[in-house]
Amino acid sequence: MEELALHILDLLENALAAGARRIIVTITEDTERGLITIEVEDDGRGIEAEALAQVLDPFYTTRKTRKLGLGLPLFQATAAQCGGDLTLESRPGQGTRVVATLQLGHPDLPPLGDMGATIAAALSSEQEADIIYRHRRGQKEFQFSSSWLKLHLGEVPLNCGPVLDWVRRYINKGLAELHGGEDW
Amino acid sequence: MKSLEELQRIKEAQLEAIRLREADQKAKIVVGMGTCGIAAGAREVMSAILDELGKRRLTGVAVTQTGCIGLCAQEPLVDVILPGKPRVTYGKVDASKARQIVAQHIVNGIVISEWVVNRGEE
């Protein structure tokens, strides 16, 4: 994966596949400590204890179409490569929380990438799930929530081209302001 | 705030589109978003589709996604479903192909046969 945002999209897809109704993505850039923390928390069906030990194994999957899982182990490998770590907590029937911490200045750190496109892609799911995205950098914070968007849209569905395109641009503009125009 | 005014305009255009057509007559584009699809560039494909639909102000098209369907070697995969027509699956789609699929298939109704990997019912 060339971007952290693509790993995040993969986690969002896992959460949707687990039947989540509410997914919270929190990204914290701690410039003082030189760390970026990415947290994806869902209220999906969760992972049974015996499977939990296996999901970080690339040769484990619940899918029946092919024999590789890969999503989580790939993100874990990226985190480890960047002097960080990925942890997974899950309670069957209650949800799953994935936390990845990576070193901000690490030469192998992928760029954050297109978070707007990532959230728009997740919102295109026909499954009704609220997605909340919080991005903190120092004292500043950007926040987006799909329920806020739905409030504005009324009966208009989220998954039509112009709405999702607007979401992508809205989020990327908010993040650009958060970064004060700096390059990643 | 400029963005919100724009959202309001999109909403009005969309409501107008809903009034003009039957709900079940909507064209649909489905992008594969399994790990295989994401790694192959599915998100960029979706962005290109959204951008193209936005530029052409095509409000009557639903854009959605699906997980891995087992054709990983052909990812990114894009399904186009026009009302009353069988599902057409395009393989190895990139951003530029995606824009052409919107222009040719969605707008003009012409299937781009050379990129098709599967045709189905529905």
From TrEMBL, chain A:
Coiled coil: none
Gene3D superfamilies per the UniProt record, alphabetical: Histidine kinase-like ATPase, C-terminal domain
Keyword Nucleotide-binding: yes
Enzyme kind, highest EC tier: transferase
SMART domains in the cross-refs: HATPase_c
GO biological process entries: phosphorelay signal transduction system
GO MF assignments: ATP binding; protein histidine kinase activity
Name by which UniProt lists this protein: histidine kinase
Gene behind the chain: gchK
